[in-house]
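HUMAN: Please help interpret these tokens:
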Amino acid sequence: MELRLQDLKDAAREGLLTETQAQTLWQRWSHSTPAHPQPPLPTAPTAGPSFGFVNVLYYFGGLVAIGAMSLFMTLGFQSLGAGALLAIALAYMVACFKVADHFKVRGLAVPAGLLATLAVFLVPLAVWSAQSLAGLWPPGGSDAFSSYHTRIDWRWLTLEFATLAAGVVMLWRYRLPFMVMPLALTLWYMSMDVANALLDDHSWEWTFMRDMSLVFGIGTVAVALWVDVRSRLSRTAEWRQDFAFWLYMFGTVMFWCGLSLRDSDSELGKFVYALINLAMVLAGAAIGRRVFTVFGALGVALYLGHLSHEVFQDSLLFPLALTLLGLGVVALGVWWQRHEVAIAARLARYVPVGLQPRS
């Protein structure tokens, strides 16, 4: 029987050997039989930056700078006029790009990503200034850019589409995971502003806004899954970084909030809500995404709180049963830890290669 590259991939996926061992075996075998060259196995996805003091300084300083040009933009700053703001935004963007290039060439990926992200955050200011300067800003609503991060208004959609377009281009240019954050944040803003546009800016329909958040959340998580698979299976080290983290984060927040705010008088509906959250817990464990597990566990806790305070509020046995259930979950965790390798190998058969937890 002739040994194939796919055989080693299948063995690694089933947990019979590691990716490194599969790589070593294939290289040794292919060197002995060079007549049939095969592409190398992709290595493990690149891990993200560590939580160290230097990185804390990087992110703290970067987020302060980002906040200064977004959340903390004051009306006094806008008194300079649209032309001056446009010039300032463009000058800042050019400076950010130059410094980001400088850092990236020297291997400083974190500060390079922060500077490039700051440039993306300046896109809404530049677009708003250009529209205001050209007299193209739609009438009605707020004329102050400082309201961009605090008010829901369909007039912000041009800023958001421009930010998405510029962010994708800059992400392709620099290939740094933190640059996905403004894109995910913009998608969250769009979920509210699109709802405002569909309502024709005449009313505030809470249920419609809630449902739009749910739909945008599902869409964002779907995009995150696609990005996750593509990045994990990439053969280029730059693209094996975790570009899906922020999409998962904001997508899960939008989906979970939209789901949790659906008030149902039916116990069956609440039970289905608990099942969905339980599925999120399991999905998060299966693909290594803690954001699913955290929000899913929070949803299950809310359902248990509903049972204790409304359904079984006069029951003496419910707290005891809930205690036993909690201890049972702890025992399950102990058993899982002891057999984690074997369980992971079995679960890997049902989880696509592109979604298996990052090492």
Residues 271-359 form one domain. Residues 33-45 have pLDDT under 50 and may be disordered. The radius of gyration is 25 Å.
